[in-house]
Design a protein that fits this description.
The protein is built from no helices and eleven strands. It is mostly beta strands and 123 residues long.
Length: 123
């Protein structure tokens, strides 16, 4: 499966962004999806994940209450709505797909990756 992330940009603290990740190739609904991010000088970290059907969702503590992950299997797309952004959210955001049945938190558990989209939050 090929993944194409989009929707990043520059936003002021307190603002919102909606990231999208469009998938092509094998059946999108066969993959659980995740959003991970990597800030400058830091390791890649988990942000959110959603199951194949969309019924199961999990978030990093830093994302709870501010980020919402969703998917539209008819459109082969997963989304990350990010609200109340702050400078610590500045990072390259990656969407990723895994053939695992469960929700995956570790980068190594994902099989396919998008190219990343830059999110910059100005304070």
């Amino acid at each position: 499966v090929q993944l194409q992330a989009s929707g990043g940009g520059l936003v002021q603290a307190g603002g919102s962004l909606r990231l999208s990740c469009a998938a092509s190739g094998r059946a999108f609904s066969s993959y659980a999806m995740g959003w991970l991010r990597q800030a400058p000088g830091k390791e890649r970290e988990f942000a959110a994940a959603i199951s194949r059907s969309g019924r199961s969702i999990t978030y990093a503590d830093s994302a709870k209450g501010r980020f919402t992950i969703s998917r539209d299997n008819a459109k082969n797309t997963v989304y990350l709505q990010m609200n109340s952004l702050n400078a610590e959210d500045t990072a390259v955001y990656y969407c990723a797909a895994t053939a695992d049945y469960g929700l995956v938190y570790e980068s190594a558990g994902y099989d396919y990756w998008g190219q990343g989209t830059q999110v910059t939050v100005s304070s």
